[in-house]
Amino acid sequence: MVISRRIFLRGLLLPLLAALVCGCSGDREHILRVYNWSDYLDLSVIEDFEQWYEEQTGEPVKVIYNTYENNEHLLSKIEKSHEDCDVACPSDYLIERLLQKDLLLPISHDFGATPDYTDSISPFIRACFDKIEGGGKNGNDYAVANNWGTTGLIYNVKYVTDEEASSWNILRNPRFADRIFIKDSARDVFSQIILYLRQDDLRSGKVTMDDLMHDSSDEAIADVEAFLKEVKPFVAGWEADFGKDQMVQERGWISLSWSGEGVWTAEQAEPLGIELKYSLPKEGFTVWLDGWVIPKYAKNAKAASYWINFMSRPDIAIRNVKETGYASANGSKEVLDAFIDDKYEPINLCYFFGPEAASARVNPVLYPDAESIRVATMEHDWGDRTPALDAMWSRVKGESANAVMIFGVGFLLALLLGVAYYRRFHGKGSEQTS
Fold it and tell me: Helix or strand or coil: residue 289?
């Protein structure tokens, strides 16, 4: 995501505040440690939660809020470091891994007289969490969905047609050389490409989309790698954060990215007279889901469960969506009504909000229509095969170094060796003549 001044200052101030809080109080039962994705929350809700929690329980709480950049970073903190963390928000496949490793606590719904707002999670999202493979544990018992979205293509309509953007094959079109940005996310990229490459098998019924999300075979990895090496000469950047700015500035015309960034880029580009759209390719795509969990080593599971309940409140969900651009997992009427906008064509969202959403005027980037969602699937954890995926990704990106870069590195090494050689023998000569 874009490293704005706001995020930069947050990165400096939040750890400092956390340190101050820790230094001032050793009363751990009144501290809640939260780990979340960067730029994934309306930060003003933190203070609101602290006040609300005291109203509901009669006890004070101070939130220490920290962020991470990827799921693997969070996994390392929980599994290896036994990080002092009460509640976190990993993605679906990582929830699978955490469950299989017995690293999560079941979520309590005992809130006394306080309503259980987690009941408002969309049935569609609950069905997705039912598919989480937790080693016999149901995902809905150990996680409450927070945000969700899709992986697709952001494109500039001045240079790219709707038809071209309707297929993943656009990524290897030489007409868009040096105008393509791809998320630096091996799992997300692999999942879309294998859906494209296995179209014949899908049509014939030989495999299902879910089968492909479990296919970590050497053959599947090799096929995706071959495709990406075709794409590589046309890629302007494998990015974790800067791609959306490149799209707004028209340096990029196509970006393999997430729906939340599709919303953000379109909003930023519109005042500049640039029209950006978001496409879900016809061959299929993945939905991603992030959910609140309580790690096994949590020291304040009570406050963590209240935090999860608070974040499930429709009004809080609405505030977070408006701040981040990512769709809430909340399927309540309040959330639907908050995003009705007559500038959009009506679409069928019954699958998410129920029968009253049969003709809803909502941004289809936030909430795909029922027809589009038919070719959606969700990713799964690869377990011990994950290093094979990472190795493929490193090979694809590692071979992107051009001759100028190689020459530059070589020249720098030669210069350093030359300086070291000169200092050694010049210094020795100076000592002998003195």
Answer: strand
